[in-house]
Design goal:
Layout (H helix, E strand, L loop, with lengths): L7 H6 L7 E5 L3 H16 L9 E5 H6 L2 H8 L9 E7 L4 H9 L7 E6 L7 H8 L3 E5 L7 H10 L7 H13 L2 H14 L9 H7 L6 H11 L6 H11 L3 H19 L5 H4 L9 H13 L2 H19 L7 H16 L2
Parallel strand pairs: 1-4, 1-5, 2-3, 3-4
Helix pairs in contact: 4-5, 8-10, 11-12, 12-17, 13-15, 13-16, 13-17, 16-17
Length: about 350
């Protein structure tokens, strides 16, 4: 039977131990792995693997010894409780083996959890589970988690009191991070909030969210956008000492000003634009970027982006002989002076 994308999260959290099996397939191996971890943990509990109620085998092992699967399904353990046989990285070549094993399945046998990569609708493996009257097949696609799924992840991490603006930031973060990184961020938030009864806030998320640029690079971008040209020299000296590359600095500056442009040019105004930018901006930095976008107008931001594009092209030009970092510093000073107008 097919398990719809709407019903799948609920089933993963509370799977039916009386089912014959479950096929989880998808192009993103990380998303598939997280789902099968969740469903296996829900079936056998935290002690299931220690109690030898979980049998693992890879697709390559099963191709060499096809009888392994049926033997594991029928095996009786020393400990009571549901048992699971997990087949990892299954391919079309295993369809006859899995078909034969499922046909021999009876009540009390181990449930079969199979993971695979992307499968076409005509796949024999996929058709086997979709056509089975006591097994499920579900495709995992590259879609960010919805609000309900995010709330469930937060609840598992022990976080239940969430401010609305914090949930907004988490929804944006979930769209930018891969599932593994997002789950790690949730675990980090849970540790960060341990013993703190205050509701989860955007500042908490900003403290735990992965950062994409070095702090010193972030500093210089704020200095430029806030027209503090006198502070550019000392920070640039620190960036040189840290080994920051001129092209990298120019790319980050362009990214920052594109964000300001997206915020400033939003039809609903900067206050709405700040909530729509991707990647999302969190915590105190969110307010700072909003103030910067309100100070710059769209025309000046277009001039700033043109200047940065020209500088980037100059840095990459084969005929460029001037010191690269000096070119970037001059461009940043010109941007700061443009902001001061």
């Amino acid at each position: 039977m097919k398990l719809s994308g709407r019903d799948a999260p609920g089933y993963f959290a509370r799977p039916d131990p009386r089912r014959t099996g479950l096929l989880i397939y998808g192009a993103d191996a990380m998303r598939v792995a997280l789902r099968r971890q969740e469903v296996i943990a829900a079936l056998i509990g935290p002690q299931g693997e220690e109690e030898m109620r979980l049998a693992r085998m890879s697709g390559s092992e099963l191709r060499k010894e096809p009888a392994m699967l049926l033997d594991a399904i029928k095996a009786q353990g020393f400990f009571p409780g549901p048992r699971v046989v997990f087949v990892e990285d299954a391919t079309e070549a295993l369809a006859p083996v899995v078909t034969a094993a499922l046909s021999e399945w009876r009540d009390g046998d181990a449930q079969v959890i199979v993971t695979a990569g992307q499968l076409k609708p005509a796949s024999k493996l996929r058709k086997l589970f979709e056509g089975h009257n006591n097994a499920y097949a579900v495709g995992i696609y590259d879609e960010p988690p919805g609000r309900a799924e995010i709330e469930a992840t937060l609840a598992k991490a022990g976080l239940r009191d969430i401010k609305p603006d914090a949930m907004r930031d988490l929804t944006g973060l979930a769209q930018e991070l891969d599932p593994g990184d997002f789950r790690q961020t949730m675990e980090k938030l849970a540790l960060y909030k341990h013993g703190d009864d205050a509701p989860l806030s955007p500042d908490d998320i900003a403290a735990c969210a992965p950062t994409s640029v070095e702090a010193a690079v972030d500093d210089i971008l704020h200095i430029v956008a806030e027209a503090r040209s006198g502070e550019i020299g000392p920070v640039m000296k620190r960036l040189r000492a840290q080994g920051v590359q001129p092209v990298s600095l120019c790319i980050n500056a362009t990214r920052h000003f594109r964000t300001l442009y997206a915020v400033a040019s939003d039809p609903g105004g900067p206050a709405q634009g700040i909530g729509r930018v991707r990647p999302p901006v969190f915590g105190p930095r969110r307010d700072r970027v909003l103030r910067q976008a309100q100070k710059w107008n769209v025309t000046r931001l277009e001039q700033a982006l043109t200047l940065l594009t020209d500088t980037d092209l100059q840095l990459r030009s084969a005929g460029q002989h001037a010191p690269a970092m000096a070119l970037v510093e001059r461009a940043l000073i010109r941007l700061a002076m443009l902001a001061a107008r």
